[in-house]
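hiii so my PI (J.) wants the whole complex modelled not just the main chain, which honestly fair. so below is everything: two entries, each one labled with what it is. i double checked the lines twice but i was tired so who knows lol
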Amino acid sequence: MELLVPEFGLVILQTIAFLLLMFLLAKFAWKPVLAAIKEREQSIDEALNKAELAKQEMIRLTAQNEGLMKEARAERDLILKEAKILKDNILHEAKAQAHNEGVKLIEKAKIEIENQKKAALAELKNQVSSLSLDIAERVLRNQLQDKVKQQELVASLLKDVELN
Amino acid sequence: MDCSHVFEFRVNRLIVVFALFLAFFSGSGAFAQTDTTHVVDEAHAEAPAKKFDIGKFALHHIADSHSWHVIGETYINLPVILYTKNGMVTFSSGDFHYDDEGKNVVERKGLRFVKLHEKIYYASANVNAHGQFVDLDEKHHAANARPLDVSLTKNACTLFLSIIVILAVFLNVANGYKKRKGKSPKGLQSWMEPIILFVRDDIAKPNLGHKYERFMPYLLTVFFFIWFNNMLGLVPFLPGGANLTGNIAVTLVLAVATFCLTVFNGNKYYWKHIFMPDVPWWMYIVMVPVELFGIFTKPIALMIRLFANITAGHILVLSLICLVFVFDSLYIAPISVAFAVFIGAIELLVAFIQAFIFTILSALFIGMAIEEHH
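here's the output for the full assembly
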């Protein structure tokens, strides 16, 4: 039972000592320590928040960049397409023109050829007629040197006339 | 009620040796062995009827003392400070010449003092049948008057020592925060910070809500005071060994502190809950006394819990060590040491748990008193 009876002297000492300890610790330890911990926690929170904000900003910028890129690409595609159409048109026109030009040239060439042909033929006819006259003259001269043959010819000519 | 009968063991051989225990620790095994037989013989020759009383031994060791045992036969005599009828009286406890039976009278300022079971009494004029200068009542308790004893006893010394240690540790920690402002903790600081945060986040905040900051100094102080002293009490030699947190006077003061904080911070909801609970009026006859009673039982439970847990731990370790003397054999020593180590490990845990429980219950009681109802 003696164990359960508090010694009054020790109660007094403990009260004084504990209050003193609490006062000293509260003033010189707990206050600065808790303040420092709180401050550090706040700075950590702040830093994390800032990092989060920076990350979001980054995401936003990336998205923006992506958008710009897409737009630029679309524009490029459009320009390319237009250029292609233009090129095709030009090519087409050029082809058509070339074709027309070609056709015209061919036409001209044909007419020229025809003319040349006609001229050539006419000359050929002249030459042929003169040649045949020449030949005929030489033949006749040759033929007419012989009396028998002259008669024969006359006879055949007469024969022909008769047939006509 | 004397608890000592709990620890009485009936053994064949009867011994009475205090010095044996000390010899066991101070000397070598062989030395202790020879010493044992020697002392046992002596004991047999002198007082064959006396036997080793574990209960008395353990209770003596967990009680407060005016001298501090160092080793072997060496004691530090602590100063005795008394507030008497004739003013302050101080002298060394060595003046009692190791007498604890009330047989040696010390005279100061015309007053005569005797020491009986580590308590100082005004000596009686005449000696009694046992050679003591005290008047014993029928229960063998001294009936003499006592001066107010504010001596620097073993517990008081430990109290001041622990305060120095705690201050040294936490001023160092606080200094760390000043030196490394906003940086990560280092050394002692990083060792203590998780515990401070534990008290704040797991004890104060859940129980006290947003008003926790006001009570942080008390909760932290009480937690570290109990924890450090529990640990100091587990150290078996000089700077430790006192049973401070297992002393009812110490736990009484701590419990009263919690009681005062609860009562003085209690808001109108708390008092309304006690005096005008939400029950039919005729229930008040039962409810109000029960609630009033509850105000006092909570701190009393705090006081008893800490006292009983720490005291029990000390008694357990002492009893296990004493098995050597109970069986009067050194061969039992390995077993008793092994058990003592095991219990010691558990006690280390208990030292923390009891500090935690005292603090969390204090926070809970204060939290109940300051809780806002909407």
